[in-house]
Amino acid sequence: MERTNPITPVGFAALRARYEQLFAVERPAVVEIVHWAAGNGDRSENGDYIYGRQKLRAIDRELGQLSKKMKVAKVLDPSKQEDRDRVFFGATVTLADIDDAERIITLVGDDEANASHGRIGWNAPLARALRGARVGDVKTVTLPTGPKEWEVVGIAYPIGE
Fold first, then answer.
1. pLDDT digits (tens, 9 = 90+) for 47-85
2. CATH code, domain carrying 22
3. Could you write out the DSSP letters of every residue in 32-87?
4. Which residue of 20, 31, 131, 156 has the smallest Cβ count within 10 Å?
5. CA nearest to 78, candidates 68, 90, 60
6. How far apart are alpha carbons 38 and 25 in whole angstroms?
7. Is Transcription regulation one of the keywords (predicted)?
8. Is the pTM of this model over 0.85?
9. Listed residues 32, 53, 75: the one ending a domain
10. Final residue of a domain: which of 75, 110, 137?
């Protein structure tokens, strides 16, 4: 069974831009350096050649990973969410813990998650616990430090065009 990965349109555009940057700009530049270095004679002690080949393998590996990610990506536009009273993909959720400390998070694709910016991956434990929740629901999340309860205080989605 093939796995699909939800991603926002912005996240997919970032993946595609990175792929195109690597494929059209960085890879040709490294190929040119390797070609030039190969013409300089003994390759066993040629630092430019050795480093260039390593860099080329790293670029090809990243291109392969990006290609796989884009192939299984399912672009979902959160602004088109019809049921805005519940937490689904793309929701920006305001949470409050037992001490009334608020935290605002946005549920995004795993490939575009950045916890320090409040962007939580769709398959993260907190995101899984919040799926389908409504304002006022209390959800328990099991963290490495133990269970923690969060109350859903607000749910928002981006406005579509």
1. 888 899 999 999 999 999 999 999 999 999 998 988 899
2. 1.10.287.180
3. HHHHHHHTTS-STT-HHHHHHHHHHHHHHHHHHHHHHHHHHEEE--GGG-S-TTB-
4. 20
5. 90
6. 20
7. yes
8. no
9. 75
10. 75
